[in-house]
Amino acid sequence: MNRIFIIGGGAAGITAALSAAQENPHAQITILEGLDRIGKKILATGNGRCNLTNEMISPEYYHTRQPERLAQLLGDMPTSRTLDFFQSIGLYSTTEEMGRVYPYCRQASMVLDILLLALRRAGVQVLCGCKVNHLIPQKKSWLVQTEQGQEFHADAVILTTGGKAAPKQGSTGSGYPMAVRLGHHYNRLYPCLVPLQCKSTVLKGLKGIRVNCGARLLAGNKKLTEEFGEIQLTDYGLSGIPALQLSCCLEDFAKGADYSVSLDLFPDWTHDTLRALIRQRIQQYPQDTLETFLLGLINKRILFAICKTLCIEPLSRPAETLTKREIDQLVSTCKGWKFPIVGTLAWDHAQVTGGGIALDEIRDDFSSIHQRGLYLAGEILDVAGDCGGYNLHWAWCSGLTAGKAAAGFVYGHEKMQ
Q1: What confidence tens digit (pLDDT) does each residue in 250-297 have?
Q2: DSSP states of 318-379 as a string?
Q3: Which residues contact 416 (CB under 8 A, 6 or more apart)?
Q4: Which of 5, 85, 198, 332 would be a feasible disulfide site paired with 339, CB 3.0-4.6 Å?
Q5: How far apart (Å, rounded) are the C-alpha atoms in residues 144 and 134?
Q6: Beta bridge partners of 344
Q7: 142-146 and 132-137: which strand pairing?
Q8: What is the phi-psi region of residue 280: left when phi exceeds 0, alpha when psi lies from -120 to 50, beta otherwise?
Q9: pTM (predicted TM-score)
């Protein structure tokens, strides 16, 4: 019968359906979606502009427990593959800073509209309000059961249920227990691209301040990685793209790892350069108070917070009263303001899921190594990308591969019957 059922109507699910339809126009392709519409999460990507992909697709921009396996899979996923797919259905794109590719119209809603149009053209059936809870392999087919009591029979199934990030947009983690019952395993799940919660008594007074800086992630005193850009200080911790990127490296947080973030407020200057500049300011304006002598270099509220933390008070003191030790403390803190991480915000605030089904449990065509006729694609797999279009690229391309393979499988399966 060439029946392909796709569980989950997100980015990977939609491209899987379109790829399957292109490969096998005679197949009966159905998307089952638990929400009242498909593609809801697509609308929220790229701040509503939909960052489709990136010109610099590389394993270094992804996080997984199997980096070598990921590199193999990404080898078949150049940027051009995503661009060619969208151009084939009528969507054109443009490239902005840092290689980020957006639709030419800069509208996520337009991306979804053209995907929906492509599904209608291909004759793909979309059934919403169908929450699948069981996939049962049978002798030559699959039984798909929903929470609503519906049953469907399929020759191949593609599992694209997403992860746990942004549950209001449909990602509830429902695919993991289904995959486990079918013999799969998944690496520990944790929220990625999510703000960091930090232990600090000064952050509440700095809420809303944005600062361009370097942000180093430390495990104990060991530097793990570093990001640059605009950090937003909040009453609970740190947000902004650099903080979100660092959250993807916290996979061992549940094991009690001692993580912290060190902010370099002057990333373009060395310790010696900053120290010399402070001393020069003191020589030029010895009677300026601590409250004013660094105006033009650093946000006043940040300077006040640092001085308070270092017990360099009162702020009404003349700058010339600063001791060598106090100057060294100022320099060290401005170049490495440390905030212990106590956690992240919850799944509601995460953009993507870290962890997931292990990559060594799928073949190059994204078929399951445990079950014939089962394919897995998208966020359910152990792949989390950085900001910049990397996650959508993975979703589009893994869906394209899985859909094509599933269509080939059911065609060959029918010929043997």
Answers
A1: 987 766 678 999 999 999 999 999 999 999 999 999 999 999 999 999
A2: BGGG--HHHHHHHHHHHH-EEEEEEEE--GGG-SEEEEEE-GGGB-TTSBBSSSTTEEE-GG
A3: none
A4: 198
A5: 6
A6: 196
A7: antiparallel
A8: alpha
A9: 0.94
